[in-house]
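## tool: complex_structure
## caller: assistant
## args:
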Amino acid sequence: MGLFNMPTVVNNVETLANLPFIADSGGQAYAAIGTDRSKGTKLVCLDGHFNQPGLVEVEMGTPLRTVIDELGRGFRKPIKAMHIGGPLGGLVPVSKIDELTIDFDSFSKAGFLLGHASIVCIPEEYPLIEYLGHLFEFTAHESCGKCFPCRLGSTRGKEMIQKAKDGNYKMPKELFSDLLEALEIGSLCALGGGLPLPVRNALLYFKEELGPYFE
Ligand code: SF4
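## result:
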């Protein structure tokens, strides 16, 4: 039971946390913060690969470089990519840091997703194929099973990656691409539909590392 022993809708806590400021200062004051299309502030979660991990609040439009170097005090070890915006967010190579600002437009125009703006770092030495395998595994585990592109596709992808990791099997590029397309356009919700984004980012920016696993 929720509030007053009645069913209760619980909204995003980050959204609710903005309400006192808007109630006190008015909508105009809130709208004056951030960018034209991304108003207000964003909470950004920095993982343990930062010298100063934790949760920071920044104005929308803040350069990603500022978040990493000034608020997070840089990386503790060499990093090759950051998974930003949750498990189904984009995989951002470090070469793109200076092109991005913390707002929805900047990320979507560059082919990524700001999402909830958590930053999970992928160290230089960590194999991306392991990471992609984990993403498929996560989706297969979390899938509610309602639609088959997600229910079956996540498991088939997990199996393909596992076989390729074991050796003696190269993933057919066209089949893998068809799998991503089926997930993207055939899934009923963002779990199956969102998985292809980080996978495609990885295939685009880490061709050399992932190439040996494909035909
Ligand atoms: S995409 Fe969503 S609705 Fe479809 S099986 Fe996956 S979790 Fe369920």
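## assistant note: The radius of gyration is 19 Å. The mean pLDDT is 95. Handing back to user.
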